[in-house]
Design goal:
six-stranded mixed β-sheet; mainly alpha; 375 residues; 6 strands; Rossmann fold; single chain
Length: 375
Amino acid sequence: MKETYKSRVYTERPDYADFNAPEKFQAITGIIMTHLRQHPKAICSYSGGADSDIMIDLIEKARKIVPSLPPVKYVFFNTGLEMKATKDHVREAAEKYGVEIEECRPKIGIVQASRTFGIPFVSKIMSAGLEGWQKKNIPLSIAEEYERAEDKPAKRKELKERYPKCESVINFLCCCNSSGEPRPDIQLVINSSKYMRDFIGENPPDFQISARCCDYCKKQAAYTVQKNYEMIITGERRDEGGMRSVPRKDNTALCFTETSNGQYRFRPLYYVSDKDKEWYRERFGIRYSDAYEVYGLTRTGCCGCPISHKAVDDLKKIQPYEPNVVKAAWNIFGKSYEYREKYNEYKQKRMNKEKEMSANIDGQMHLEDFLGVTQ
């Protein structure tokens, strides 16, 4: 049997990750108590989304059980493209729990960041890879060279020499690691999205691709606010996929880690599944924002972000309630929406063609079998 590469977030997991929902949340509550005692100067990012609602409820429940626990500083990072439903819900959450949720805005807004660096396409991982490809201007044909090579490590080494300082782009395009070993099934390569390499070869993008708007509008703004705190609490969950299920330098495989600058990162919901989350919501009567309860969205965040495959459909749901924010999203991300639609059509045609070819081959085999019997 072929060995499949598995991310460390699936292989290195604490025992409580496999508990049933009641026991899991009980364990998480205890973990929150422990870390707040040990690291009392804590700051928590609250987005107004469903995960944040579960997280703030758990934290404040723990503080209610143990009144001596220190208060947590809550912040909401407004990218400039947030729904009114989200901003209203942030205020409602602050009132519900009797806490302050400070609104923070980035120095570089989303419009400026998108115009300067580019707009996301498909995912953060794909956007980063394609941004590097566009900047380095490396031909897609290197992937064919690598695939044809009998000695793939040697070919990978030769590509590195031919294109210096392009390590990540070479790996991305060739679907391999730095040692030249094929890695076709991981998220960090171009064909993690089916036929993507062929698609961009036949339909080169006419716009800059980048997910740096997220870096400037969220991450850098967060760093400025969080740098003076001992512990940073976020609502990341492994089951969200994408970058959140790929190990990073701060070892995302664990829900509590120490960073290189001496801060601690705490992700209490990291091993909470969608099913666990739904159980908690029903058990404790958590009400999400109108974006979920009224508009019918399943995720929130920067309105219309193209990394969601449902971005255009979600904008249609938002349109009757907040037409101005929908118009703004189309003005910023429109090219990405259109390019993704083109990619989806291309992918469907390729899949249909492969299905037809497979059916024809099967049909020929059956015919030959039949002829062989009758002769």
